[in-house]
């Protein structure tokens, strides 16, 4: 069975993941959670209720914006879309994660040379 | 009998405690809960079992409330504090006792305000602060339906006795 991703890493990856999902198209909370679960094969465990405060913070920072819509059932639903500022933030976050990844790779290479 | 709509509404209200202006946030949370409940119902769970499973999936309610509170504006934080204060006061004292305390508090504050303004020639700012403090018990009483009812009954009684 795959190992669950630690909580601190889950928290750190929340913003780039949400921005990435919204870069593919407008979405809403439940669908975002579903998509995260699918792409991570269940390794990334988000408590559903914790997603919304993060979305609201991103909205406050003007990275995303929301609009009212309706579900197929007729229920009112809040949708989110990525703003240009969010797209810029996503590019920056990608660079940072790539940089971290390459740092770990470099260190691993050095360790392999030493042994 | 288990009322799914009522339970979902109640849960969302408890999570988002900071003010009544946040209906969009509450509706958003309700929509999510309904989606989860429908998912569990499709697997054959009853309304109640689906609700319990969905709540578990939502996560620790205290943590969610704390996260929502982080985003709240100062006014919403004050309102949430006021509501929590009401709950803890109501748990300790009766409605009548609280109204008597509030009246005494208001009279003392009013006295301090008048004496500060007239006798010691205090500045406007101090008077404004005193006025704000003076309003606290009224805010406490007025925003709680239970206390409001008790206050009306108490004042009626007071008027009857004095007249």
Structure description:
The mean pLDDT of chain A is 91. Chain A is elongated, with a radius of gyration of 17 Å. Chain A has a single domain (7-114), classed as Winged helix-like DNA-binding domain superfamily/Winged helix DNA-binding domain (Arc Repressor Mutant, subunit A, Orthogonal Bundle), CATH 1.10.10.10. In chain A, a hairpin with a 5-residue loop joins strand 1 and strand 2. Chain A has a two-stranded antiparallel ribbon with strand order 1-2. Helices cover 60% and strands 12% of the residues of chain A. Chain A is built from 4 helices and 2 strands, in the order αααββα. Chain A starts with 6 loop residues before the first helix and ends with a helix. Chain A has 115 residues and is an alpha+beta fold. The model of chain B has no long low-confidence stretch (mean pLDDT 76). The radius of gyration of chain B is 22 Å and the shape is elongated. The longest helix of chain B has 25 residues, at 95-119. Chain B has 2 domains: 4-71; 74-162. With 163 residues, chain B is an all-alpha fold. At the A-B interface, helix 3 and strand 2 of A face helix 2 and helix 4 of B.
